[in-house]
Amino acid sequence: MHLPDTEFDPDDNFAHGTDPDLEIDEDAGTETLVWQLLLLVNPGDEETALQQFAAYQDATADAGEDEFEPAWVLKDIIDWKSGFQVHDDDAAALVESITELVARWNLDLDWGVEDPTDDEFLADASIPALLQVAYDALRAYGYTLWIWDTGTATTAGWITLSRDNEAMGAIAPALGIKLRPGG
Fold it and tell me: Model confidence over 3-12: pLDDT tens digits?
């Protein structure tokens, strides 16, 4: 495995991501952008980012850059570890996946009910309302829930440190990912 050639420290994780002069080289190689995105979606967990980067390299090794979309390769690599994708009508899977993701940081989100796995609660819950609850709860802990517009009947996304919002807002579009905060 090799890390992408960069002119910046890959361990920086955009520590100064809120710098108003932040510039992302949109012409940077795809691998460089993928590496930075993986660092952002795995805050404080470079080992997982490295494993996912190796998986990305393996998945794309024999393909030309115009033969795959980085976002879809990444989705499969990070699913249920650093990201999520659920059907738009599956509130139970959304609650379960976000709960699993935030457990990495020992967080327990307040979904507004005693048991967020209760069938009655989930039957009445809408994905947009649940995303808003998760977004608000995560903001209180210094995290941002991001939603990726997949163009499908699914809701997908990931969580980053709020201090990295500007960096995520620059990297995702450079990879062709339509992304917005979850709230």
Answer: 444 333 444 4
In sequence order, the 6+-apart residues with CB closer than 8 A to the CB of 87 are: 93, 153, 154, 155
pTM > 0.85: yes or no: no
36-to-49, 78, 127 alpha-carbon distances in Å:
9, 14, 28
Q: Can you read off the two tokens belonging to residue 122?
A: 């989930």
What residues contact 155, with CB distance under 8 A and at least 6 apart?
A: 84, 85, 86, 87, 88, 94, 127, 131, 147
140/14 Cα distance (integer angstroms): 21
End-to-end CA distance of the chain: 37
3-state secondary structure of 36: helix
Can you give the residue ranges of every domain in the chain? 10-181
pLDDT of 68-123, one tens digit each?
A: 889 999 999 999 999 999 999 999 999 999 999 999 999 999 999 999 999 999 99
**Could you give the CA distance from residue 33 to residue 3 in angstroms, rounded to a whole number?**
11
For residue 165, how many other CB atoms are within 10 A of its CB?
A: 17
Structure tokens at 9: 């420290």
34-47-104 Cα angle (round to 5): 95
